[in-house]
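User: Teach me something about this protein's shape.
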Amino acid sequence: MNTTPQPDPRDRPARLTVGVVGAGRVGPALAASLQLAGHRPVAVSGVSDTSRRRAAALLPDVPLVTPAEVLRRAELVLLTVPDDALPGLVAGLAETGAVRPGQLLVHTSGRYGAKVLDPALRAGALPLALHPAMTFTGTPVDVQRLAGCSFGVTAPEELRLAAEALVIEMGGEPEWIAEDRRPLYHAALALGANHLVTLVAQSMELLRTAGVEAPDRMLGPLLGAALDNALRSGDAALTGPVARGDAGTVAAHIVELRTHAPQAVAGYLAMARATADRALDHGLLKAELAEDLLGVLADGTVPAVGTAPEDPSTPPDNSSPENTGDTDRPGDTESTDGTGSTGGSGDTDRPGDTDGPEGDVR
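Assistant: First, the predicted structure itself:
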């Protein structure tokens, strides 16, 4: 028995004609999901061959037209373009008179809330920000993935019920995000999902270099367990040489990365510093081991009197009288947090509809 609270039928939007501006990876999937709920896709804009194929696969028999024509035909319009393109698109549509009073205008950007739709609001549109926290492939499997997917929802208070009802109709779970917290919300998702793809891809490359024939098969169970543990236990799930304070092992890693994958060194150091900080804060990394570890992360060698040992796994000699701790320690200065810059929404097409790389956290 489904115990999920269902919206009051009086709060559900009427069956609507649906249009999509930007046939990237997100828009056609959302429109197809709305179609399953009884709404009717009537128009989609798309220019590239990839977009046309995607629209044909997910929205068969729905005509491809211009963005202005999409707005003319649809009562509910999905603006599924990259974050940086969204403000200009909204302003342009409003200035050309394409926006109609009473039209539901929905964007799927994680970065923006409802205020980016203010030009359309002034033209009489009803603004909604519905961001699916999911990664999209541009294939029919995306419609299935929406089941149970969380959506970051931002809208005027009077439209809140309508926004949440649309999310539920797509099989999602609405999560209300305040307007001023949207960039932070999106940064959190990008940090967790986008950067995860980079880390996994780098790990597979290194395993192949090390001679592993099936790195995906090796990593699958390990990463699945790590993700499950992290979601269940947070920082208590930290394991590995950084959390243990194995400075020699970390130094050996850095030496190998500099030799075989120098492009991965900066990322390894940044994440290791962030891991060390969190392990220290939660009592997993012993303070007496942290000094040597932070020294390794500062310069890639094990702290020792004179020069670093030839073997980076050799434990440091802490018996020397010179090693009194009177000088500044590597850990005395603030370490970087390991976070990189977050990209924009790459899952959806730009107004010109050229397909970009998958980058958004969806």
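Now, about its shape. Residues 7-12, 304-362 have pLDDT under 50 and may be disordered. The chain has 13 helices and seven strands. If you'd like, I can walk through any region in more detail.
User: That's plenty for now, thanks!
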